[in-house]
């Protein structure tokens, strides 16, 4: 067996065996297969696709490339959630304390952001003192005591994915449904939770631009999870428009806290609706409840303040200072005004995401430094009526804000 044979086989649309896929994953992870051979196979997969069986074998081989976290010492059914990434997506910060407040253990490993997709770990690290690197024992103890822990991924969790994703990122093979499904599910399964809710984003600010693509990805990931003995549910949500009003690390933490505090004037109904849906699904999977019962339970802990209390308990448990959850002043603040009047029909999430990166809220490369206070506040949201010259957004940054960035946010707004 050699890589030339695998490439020729996949190039002609033939199915790779479990042994062939394992050979590739092991060889590339241990450096016996060079980048140029691996990238050729990845491109063939990108062009020709993979069967459900191939995708499953790829995921399994990636899981077996490193550590698998043992969460059996955590009492109860452990639930996790994953978002395929979006603009203004601070859902994890909100739904995890909701579920923990309902007595369900939430054991979640998250990543840092790259490009327009914000990372939960970056948002958490914007809070003074907040620790995202926890030992295995600390992580388990926090979940047992507080019902919640969110931490960065460990160094040897699915090392094959780290290497393969880095190569995909520079070879134009990121947007392959089998490769995305294997990447996400290998990390989720290796993280040890019993159940997983997948939030698959769809639209201009997501990898999946159409409902059809999003459903294919959701179905692929659900099938993988079920074959590996996990309870998995997928939900497809809109990412044509940014979620909520705030985009940027500290800004999104502030908005999450505002929503949990019931201060809806500081956030938006689209974020609340999404969080209720995801929380309800998590509760249904973990507790075996029906949708009506789960949704009522979620709304109860939001209204009685126990979800907020759990959020603050979680922050403190990981060393964070709750008093630091405030919007900080930045060196530069610019108002963006509407170029024409009308009803906001859509706010292009991709353009808003690109503007947030330009302000310093996101990374262009993994080595890029973040401005935790940078970001965008959307004053006008979809459905709002505005007049020409009205302020539709504010931009925040500790670096100079360019006219190009202002123009990008202006052009993101389309009026009906």
From TrEMBL:
One of its GO terms (molecular function) is thymidine phosphorylase activity. Its cofactor is K(+). Its EC number is 2.4.2.2. It is an enzyme of class 2 (transferase). Residues 343-416 form the Pyrimidine nucleoside phosphorylase C-terminal domain. It comes from the Bacteria. InterPro entries: Glycosyl_Trfase_fam3 (IPR000312), Glycosyl_Trfase_fam3_N_dom (IPR017459), Glycosyl_Trfase_fam3_N_dom_sf (IPR036320), Nuc_phospho_transferase (IPR035902), PYNP-like_C_sf (IPR036566), PYNP_C (IPR013102), Pyrmidine_PPas_bac/euk (IPR018090), Thymidine/pyrmidine_PPase (IPR000053). Catalyzes phosphorolysis of the pyrimidine nucleosides uridine, thymidine and 2'-deoxyuridine with the formation of the corresponding pyrimidine base and ribose-1-phosphate. Homodimer. This is Pyrimidine-nucleoside phosphorylase.
């Amino acid at each position: 067996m050699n890589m030339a044979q695998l490439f020729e086989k996949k190039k002609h649309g033939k199915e790779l065996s479990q042994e062939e896929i394992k050979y590739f994953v092991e060889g590339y992870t241990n450096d016996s297969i060079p980048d140029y051979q691996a990238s050729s196979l990845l491109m063939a997969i990108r062009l020709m696709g993979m069967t459900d069986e191939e995708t499953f074998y790829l995921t399994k081989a990636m899981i077996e490339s490193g550590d698998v976290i043992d969460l059996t010492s955590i009492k109860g059914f452990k639930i996790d959630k994953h978002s395929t990434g979006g603009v203004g997506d601070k859902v994890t910060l909100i739904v995890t304390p909701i579920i923990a407040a309902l007595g369900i253990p939430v054991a979640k490993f998250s990543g840092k952001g790259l490009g327009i997709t914000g990372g939960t770990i970056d948002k958490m690290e914007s809070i003074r003192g907040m620790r995202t690197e926890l030992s295995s024992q600390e992580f388990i103890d926090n979940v047992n005591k507080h019902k919640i822990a969110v931490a960065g991924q460990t160094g040897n969790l699915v090392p094959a994915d780290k290497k393969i994703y880095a190569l995909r990122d520079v070879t134009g093979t990121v947007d392959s449904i089998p490769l995305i499904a294997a990447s996400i599910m290998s990390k989720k399964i290796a993280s040890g939770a019993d159940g997983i809710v997948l939030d698959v984003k769809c639209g201009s600010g997501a990898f999946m631009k159409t409902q059809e693509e999003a459903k294919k990805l959701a179905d692929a990931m659900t099938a993988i999870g079920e074959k590996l003995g996990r309870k998995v549910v997928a939900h497809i949500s809109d990412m044509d428009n940014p979620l909520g009003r705030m985009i940027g690390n500290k800004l999104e933490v502030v908005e999450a806290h505002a929503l949990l505090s019931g201060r809806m004037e500081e956030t938006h109904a689209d974020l609340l609706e999404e969080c209720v849906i995801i929380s309800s699904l998590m509760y249904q999977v973990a507790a075996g409840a029906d949708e009506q019962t789960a949704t009522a339970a979620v709304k109860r802990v939001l209204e009685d303040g126990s979800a907020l209390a759990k959020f603050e308990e979680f922050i403190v448990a990981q060393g964070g200072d709750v008093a630091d959850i405030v919007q900080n002043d930045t060196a530069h603040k610019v108002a963006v005004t509407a170029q024409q009047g009308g009803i906001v029909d859509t706010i292009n999430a991709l353009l808003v995401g690109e503007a947030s990166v330009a302000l310093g809220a996101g990374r262009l490369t993994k080595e890029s430094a973040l401005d935790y206070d940078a970001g965008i506040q959307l004053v006008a949201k979809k459905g709002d009526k505005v007049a020409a010259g009205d302020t539709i957004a504010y931009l925040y940054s500790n670096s100079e804000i360019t006219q190009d960035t202002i123009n990008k946010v202006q052009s993101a707004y389309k009026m009906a």
